[in-house]
Design brief:
This protein is mainly β. Helices cover 0% and strands 40% of the residues.
Length: 276
C-alpha cells in the first residue's frame, strides 16, 4: 500500500496549492504527474505519487519518490557518502543498474514528512544520476519544472537598444520579451537588428527545461567583458517558440535601454557565473 505524508494544516501558496514546510527548512508538495527515471534501458523510478521538494537556497525543485515506486533492489548503501550536499543528515545510496555503478545517485531526507521517500540526483550533479527523466510521455531535462513558475514569450513593439562596453550593438522595435518568474525580463532581438559581426560563436551550450538548449556568442570588441553574454535558442520548446533564432543578452553584463529608459543591471544567480 502506498504511504503518503500526513496532511497537517499549512499556509496556502499564492498559486493556490498547499506547500508544507519541514523543521529542516524543506518545502514540499504532492505532484499529480506520472514521473519515470531510467538508467540506460533500466527503469529505476516509475511513480504516480511523487513529491516536489525545494531545498533551502536552491531555486529549482527536485522530486522525491515513495520507496515502493523505486527499484530499491538496484540501490545499496553508498561506499563514500556525499555528506553536506543536501539538507540535513541523509542516507545515501549507490545505484547499480545494468552493471554500471553510480555513486551517491540517491538519498533520503531526514524530515519526518519525507520518511519513506527517496530522491535522486538530477540538477546539481550532472551525470551522477539517471540518464533520462519523463513527466507523462515528455522527456524533461536539467531539473523538474516548477509548477509555480511561469515563462511567457510575448512579441512586442518596444524600442530596445543594447550597448556593450559603450558600443551600440542592437537596436530594434520588434523584440520578443521573455518573462520568467524570478528573473529579469529578457529581450530577444531579431538577428538583423544585432551587430553579430562584433561577436564570435563559442562551443558553450546550456539547457533549460522551460526553453530548450541555447548556443552562445562572446564579445570580440574592445573592453573587458564576460564570456558568452549573447545567446539564442535555435530549436526552442513549443511554449516559447516565439524566441526561435532571436538573440538575447545578459542584462547583468550589458546596458539595455527600453523606450528611452536605461535599465539597471540586475543582480541574479547568473551574476556570479559570468566570467571574463
Amino acid at each position: 500500500m502506498t504511504t503518503h505524508p500526513a496532511q497537517p494544516v499549512h499556509p496556502v501558496h499564492p498559486a493556490g496549492q498547499s506547500i508544507r514546510t519541514t523543521p529542516e527548512g524543506l518545502l514540499w508538495e504532492p505532484s499529480e504527474r506520472w514521473v519515470r527515471g531510467r538508467k540506460g534501458d533500466v527503469t529505476v523510478v516509475d511513480s504516480r505519487h511523487p513529491l516536489l521538494v525545494w531545498e533551502p537556497g536552491v531555486p529549482v525543485p527536485l522530486y522525491a519518490f515513495p520507496r515502493e515506486e523505486v527499484r530499491e533492489d538496484l540501490l545499496r548503501p553508498a561506499r563514500q557518502p556525499r555528506t553536506g550536499s543536501h539538507t540535513g543528515s541523509q542516507v545515501f545510496y549507490d545505484l547499480d543498474a545494468g552493471g554500471e555503478v553510480v555513486q551517491n545517485a540517491a538519498w533520503t531526507f531526514p524530515a519526518d514528512d519525507l520518511a519513506g521517500y527517496i530522491a535522486f540526483e538530477w540538477f546539481r550533479h550532472r551525470y551522477s544520476g539517471l540518464d533520462h527523466w519523463y513527466e507523462e510521455e515528455e522527456e524533461i531535462f536539467v531539473h523538474p519544472r516548477d509548477p509555480h513558475k511561469r515563462v511567457d514569450a510575448l512579441p512586442s513593439s518596444r524600442h530596445v537598444q543594447v550597448e556593450v562596453a559603450g558600443m551600440p550593438v542592437a537596436d530594434t522595435r520588434r523584440p520578443v520579451l521573455l518573462f520568467e518568474t524570478g528573473l529579469p525580463t529578457r529581450y530577444y532581438i531579431p538577428r538583423e537588428d544585432v551587430r553579430l559581426d562584433l561577436f564570435e560563436p563559442t562551443d558553450h551550450h546550456t539547457a533549460c527545461p522551460y526553453k530548450g538548449t541555447a548556443r552562445y556568442w562572446t564579445w570580440s570588441g574592445e573592453g573587458d567583458m564576460p564570456r558568452d553574454i549573447l545567446w539564442s535558442y535555435p530549436d526552442p520548446l513549443p511554449a516559447v517558440a516565439a524566441v526561435k533564432d532571436l538573440l538575447a543578452f545578459y542584462n547583468e553584463a550589458v546596458d539595455i535601454t527600453v523606450d528611452g529608459e536605461g535599465l539597471e543591471r540586475p543582480v541574479t544567480p547568473f551574476t556570479a557565473t559570468l566570467r571574463a
